[in-house]
């Protein structure tokens, strides 16, 4: 199988990528990384992501450096020049086919961009690649998600879901401060969503998709009111969270459940 995703279904960043893979109708293998057992900090996973965080994607692609008749010599090994990547090369009469394995792509948003771009003709078009202006707006709103929405919502999710696992009660001061920040971001979304159905325009895109995992966990908490109080944001949330691709992914998003 060409695409291998290393991660955990309950993880927000893994779910972001899983949703993208489902929207694109792609075959892939999910390789489970057990965060609770610390697998992400062990050498095999650190070789894929030295930051020790999930997810990581491997695309076992074939790169052709030359072509010709196969003379059957197979060369396998790690090389300095290709860092720690494993490579396979098949010597041919007038060239070498090199097949790289274990080329990891990390950072969930970089992974979704790669998948959406590489498979732009497959499944749902997440990037509006045929319209340069719409494509630019998709990029704008994916940046807004990572630069404005994420910094406000992530600490709230941490307090509700991760702090209790570490033996701490959620810190209401942090929650309140970040909720105020998130409310201001969502006021801008509310205004935008009065004129277009989705963030980048009247089409669902990668920009909307990137919001799903953190918003999904937020909606399980009392802080869901920050969405429910804003009618256009609420309608947008109900729309994007009921797409079949995300519904499939949400089944595995049970972080913090007993
Ligand atoms: N910016 C990264 C963040 C990755 C991240 O924070 N992953 C979490 C799971 S959602 C993780 O591996 N946490 C364990 C740790 O940081 O030790 C991305 O979007 O992929």
UniProtKB/TrEMBL annotation:
Query: One Pfam family this chain carries?
Result: GST_C
Q: Residue ranges of the GST N-terminal domain?
A: 1-123
What SUPFAM superfamilies does the record point to?
GST C-terminal domain-like, Thioredoxin-like
Q: Which GO terms describe its cellular component?
A: cytosol
| Gene Ontology biological process terms, A to Z | glutathione metabolic process; toxin catabolic process
Asked whether the UniProt record includes Cytoplasm among its keywords, one would answer yes
GST C-terminal domain residues:
131-258
Q: Provide the primary localization.
A: cytoplasm
The answer on whether this UniProt entry bears the keyword DNA repair reads: no
> Which keywords, in A-to-Z order, does the entry hold?
Cytoplasm, Detoxification, Transferase
Q: EC annotation?
A: 2.5.1.18
Catalytic reaction equation(s): RX + glutathione = an S-substituted glutathione + a halide anion + H(+)
**PANTHER family registered for this protein in UniProt:** GLUTATHIONE S-TRANSFERASE F13 (PTHR43900:SF72), GLUTATHIONE S-TRANSFERASE RHO (PTHR43900)
* Family affiliation: Belongs to the GST superfamily. Phi family.
**What protein am I looking at?**
glutathione transferase
Q: Which organism is it from?
A: Salix brachista
């Amino acid at each position: 199988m060409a695409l291998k995703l290393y991660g955990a279904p309950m993880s927000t960043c893994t779910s972001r990528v899983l949703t993208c893979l489902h929207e694109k109708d792609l075959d892939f293998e999910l390789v489970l990384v057990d965060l609770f057992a610390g697998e992400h900090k062990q050498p095999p996973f650190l070789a894929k992501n030295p930051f020790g965080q999930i997810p990581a994607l491997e695309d076992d692609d074939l790169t052709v450096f030359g072509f010709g008749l196969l003379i059957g010599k197979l060369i396998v090994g790690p090389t300095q020049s290709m860092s720690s990547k494993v490579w396979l090369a098949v010597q041919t009469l007038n060239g070498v086919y090199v097949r790289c394995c274990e080329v990891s792509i990390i950072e969930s948003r970089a992974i979704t961009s790669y998948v959406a771009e590489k498979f732009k003709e497959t499944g749902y078009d997440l990037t509006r690649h045929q319209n340069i202006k719409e494509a630019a707006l998709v990029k704008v709103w994916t940046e807004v998600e990572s630069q404005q929405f994420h910094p406000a919502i992530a600490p709230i999710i941490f307090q509700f879901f991760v702090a209790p696992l570490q033996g701490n009660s959620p810190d209401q001061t942090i929650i309140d401060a970040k909720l105020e920040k998130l409310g201001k971001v969502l006021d801008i979304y509310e205004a935008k969503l009065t004129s277009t159905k989705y963030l980048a325009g009247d089409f669902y895109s990668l920009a909307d998709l990137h919001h799903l995992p953190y918003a999904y966990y937020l909606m399980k908490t009392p802080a869901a009111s920050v969405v429910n109080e804003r009618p256009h944001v609420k309608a947008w949330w109900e729309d994007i969270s009921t797409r079949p691709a995300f519904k499939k992914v949400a089944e595995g998003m049970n972080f913090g459940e007993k």
